[in-house]
């Protein structure tokens, strides 16, 4: 029977009660993986717990009694500690065992849920306030509908005895060609769950419930994407999911091949871009934000798009050349730096920054006019520098000489 049909009837509230507090097989596998990894103990040692280790959360009698972490610690000491001294399992490792067991434990909880193919509830009705599936990526729900996906929704009784939604997750049915395995045959009749809300309702608990209801196994977390992407229209939290079915132990990745009608293609890099996130290049081609910021800019004055190499940056603002000039900015003739009006220095009809101006020019200390440094001597221009009298060779201001002679020499010449 098709796994999707096993989830029928739709839109009918059902209840499930975990009678016993036990850790699921997937939870026990995750604990076994933790304990068999020597890195868990900083390279100290590793060990395997038996496949038939009792998965009950609590046993109240017998030699191995207590919570699951305590029983594992006791079993390890009894098994490996006879006749030799062994390290105790570190407290932090036992705490991690407890965390894993808690997530994957049936914990005697009652669930009220339904399964639907109608994704028209309001954001927040099932603990999913702020979800992009109901805001910036509403097209994701269209994609889910087009591929016969479902949603599982969870309820709790409020103070008036009414069912109030508190959580949800999406259920997807991948094709065989979308599933990767480590070895052996691919499973052909599976589903996956992803994007569970709220965060206090872990995805593994959703997967465990569906697997339990269907009498199947679940495995996670598995790499999950759509056309190799996780952050486009079909937003995939952390790029991970849980898979549910038979013969799923070898599944390593699921990569859907859904066409994204809500995406445009970047004319520069070819990557898909959301309609709300696209930009345009100077030729009005659609490009992604990454390519736009790398190669183009938008002038802050006229709003047009230009190549990044043509950007005029002044005081942390970016303009095209025409707008920069209209704002009163000008480039230094020597170094090319664009300057605000207060920072511009003029000389011989050209604009310079202060540094370049000081390397080439100076003001005459007498008349205040600007000259090339080669034309200034002791801070004075040629017209302001003292010159020798042709008669006595004593230096005078140019205005005090007449025909090259000072007054005294002119008098002597007249006599």
Characterize this entry briefly.
With 415 residues, the chain is α+β, with helices and mostly antiparallel strands.
Give the end-to-end Cα distance, rounded to a whole number of Å: 137 Å
- The spatial strand order of the largest sheet comes to 1-4-5-6-8-10-9-11-7
Proportion of beta-strand residues:
25-35%
Shape call: elongated
Share of residues in helices: 10-25%
Q: Assembly type of the shown chains? A: single chain
Number of strands: 27
Described by strand count, sense and barrel closure, the largest sheet is: 9 strands, mixed
Query: What structural class is derived from the secondary structure elements?
Result: alpha+beta
Number of helices: 9
**Spans where pLDDT lies below 50 across 5 or more residues:** none
Task: Compute the average pLDDT.
Answer: 84
Radius of gyration, rounded? 40 Å
């Amino acid at each position: 029977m098709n796994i999707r049909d096993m989830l029928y009837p739709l839109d009918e509230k059902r209840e499930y009660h975990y009678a016993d507090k036990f850790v699921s097989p997937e939870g026990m596998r995750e604990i076994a993986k933790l304990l068999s990894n020597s890195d868990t103990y900083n390279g100290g040692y590793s060990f395997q717990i038996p496949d038939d280790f009792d998965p009950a959360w609590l046993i109240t009698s017998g030699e191995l009694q207590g919570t699951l972490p305590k029983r594992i610690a006791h079993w390890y000491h009894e098994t490996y500690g006879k006749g030799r001294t062994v390290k105790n399992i570190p407290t932090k490792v036992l705490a991690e065992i407890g965390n894993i067991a808690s997530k994957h434990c049936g914990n005697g909880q009652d669930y009220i849920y339904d399964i639907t193919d109608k994704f028209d509830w309001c954001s927040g009705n099932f603990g999913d306030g702020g979800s992009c599936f109901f805001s910036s990526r509403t097209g994701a729900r269209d994609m889910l509908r087009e591929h016969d996906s479902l949603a599982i929704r969870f309820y709790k009784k409020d103070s008036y005895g009414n069912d109030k939604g508190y959580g949800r997750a999406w259920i997807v049915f991948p094709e065989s060609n979308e599933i990767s395995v480590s070895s052996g045959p691919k499973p052909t009749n599976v589903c996956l769950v992803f994007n569970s809300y709220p965060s206090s309702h872990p995805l593994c608990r959703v997967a465990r419930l569906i697997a339990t209801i269907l009498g199947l196994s679940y495995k996670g977390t598995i790499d999950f994407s759509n056309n190799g992407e996780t952050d486009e229209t079909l937003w995939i939290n952390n790029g991970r999911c849980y898979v549910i079915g038979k013969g799923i132990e070898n599944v390593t990745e699921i990569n859907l091949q859904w066409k994204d009608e809500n995406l445009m293609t970047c004319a520069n890099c070819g990557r898909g871009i959301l309609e709300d996130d696209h930009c345009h290049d100077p030729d009005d081609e659609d490009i992604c934000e990454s390519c736009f910021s790398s190669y183009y800019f938008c002038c802050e004055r006229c709003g047009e798009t230009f190549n990044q190499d043509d950007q005029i940056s002044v005081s942390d603002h970016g303009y095209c050349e025409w707008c920069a000039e209209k704002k009163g900015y000008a480039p230094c003739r020597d170094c090319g730096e664009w300057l605000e009006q207060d920072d511009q220095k003029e000389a011989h009809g050209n604009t310079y920054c202060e540094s370049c101006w000081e390397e080439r020019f100076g003001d005459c200390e007498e008349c205040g006019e600007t000259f090339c440094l080669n034309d200034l001597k002791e801070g004075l221009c040629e017209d302001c520098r003292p010159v020798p009298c042709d008669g006595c060779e004593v230096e005078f201001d140019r205005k005090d000489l007449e025909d090259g002679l000072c007054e005294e020499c002119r008098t002597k010449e007249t006599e």
